[in-house]
Structure formats: structure tokens, C-alpha cells
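Question: Hello, beginner here. Any chance you could explain the protein record under this note? Any guidance would be welcome.
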Amino acid sequence: MYKIIKAEFIATGVKSFKIEAPLIAKKREAGQFIMLRVHDRGERIPITIADSNPEEGWIQIIVQSIGKTSMHLNTLETGDALHDLVGPLGRPTHVDNWGTLVCISGGVGTAEALPIASAGRKAGNKVYSIIGARNKDLLIAEKEMSLVTDGVFVSTDDGSYGRKGLVTDVLNDMMKDGLVPNMVVAIGPLPMMAAVSNQTKLLDIPCMVSLNAIMVDGTGMCGACRATVDGKTVFVCVDGPEFDGHKVDFKELGTRQRMYKKQEAESTKCYLERMADEAAKGGN
């Protein structure tokens, strides 16, 4: 069991957890993730390690309520415990002194971009962040990102905060103002990463993406996280999760991501119905 030291919502449907995991905290590097189960009959899900403190022995994860397991996870509070977790998994982010690094993130992808931005700055880069969200209420980690970068730019789909539009629009604006990156890291929803990869490829700017493939064990044994990169099959959990965005077959990956959409919807529906029933019984 892994004790939750602190749990708090940081945006609508988005919760931050500090979890007691001293061994993982000592070894974890930027870009790595864990596999966890909420209870002994639960599914395993991969979640990026957003932060850690080796001295205090905790790691931080940030979770958005999307499906059944993430919704269940976000009902846990300070003092509760996770049944099990394993990590750190995946290859750490390769960070170099590129010159100017722009980290582009969407949704909870900002949780993963944060340690990469910090590592990039420590490596001597000028680091800028572009954060995208559907609306202001779903924006996370702007303040934290401002502490480890030389500038933060925000866009929202509805214009409720920052620039109205897409993260690719913000990157265009930055370049028009003379800020041209030597490296771009894009982390977030698949369509966003595909759009940034296409944009940077046309501009001849290197781009690294972190793929959020379906995973079962996180060790390369199950093969569920297969993706095609540069025409070759890779296993995201052990070969990644980060790859050259210009070489990823995003169309194929998107198809694989939708393979269990029906089952995921059914599972979420059953969970919400059960929670509603329990709430109704509790109110009687």
C-alpha cells in the first residue's frame, strides 16, 4: 500500500497527489512514469511523475477525471492509500543545451512538461512554455511553470484566459516576434502533439513528443503500447515514452487509442451509475 500524503483538486476535475514512495523518489528522472492500481481488482494505468522529493520520500502525480479508473482515483483523499504502484518506468528525457527550448503542453500534459522545462533550464537553455487548455478552469501549473522558465504563454480554446486559439497559433506569434526555438517538446492530447509535430516539421525545428499509448504492464511484455516511429515498431513503455515527433505515425496511434472506446464508455457508465446508487442509499 502506498499512502497518499496530500490530495487536492487544482482545477476542475484535476487532482494532485503526493504519494509516499521513497525508493521511486530517489531514482525518478524527468519524463518517467509509474503504473498504479487503485485497488486489488483495478486496472493498471500509467501516470507521469510530475515531481518528487528524495529527502522527504514522495512523488507527485496529477490526474484528470476522464474514465472510470481516473474518476475513482480522484475520489481518494489525504490519508488514503493506493493498492500498488511500480516505477520509475520509461526512459528519462534526454536533455541537452540546445539554446532555446519551448515546452508546449495541453491539459495535464503540463504536469510532465514541468520537470522537463526545469531540467532544460538547468542544462543552460533559455526555456519558454506554451500552455493550452479548453478553458481557464482546466488550466494547471501556470505559476509553477513560471518559476522554472523565462516566460509562459497561455492559450484557451474559448478565449476565457490568455490568447484565444491553439498552441500552434502561440508558437507562430512567438516566431513572428523573433523567438525561434532550437528544440520543441510537445506533451498533451494526441491531436495537439500531431499538430505541433507537423508545424515544426515544416519549419525545420526539432520536436520531441511524449506518447500516451494504451499500456497494461508498462514493461514491454504485453505489446499493447505498440506504435510506429520512423517506419519501425516501438514499445512506448520501454523505448519511450518520448520520440521524434516528425517520425511518429499519429494516424495509426490514434486508431489504436480508440480500440477500446466502447468498453471504456461502458465501464465509466457502470461506475457512475454505481456511485449514484450508493449516494442515493446514503441519503436515505
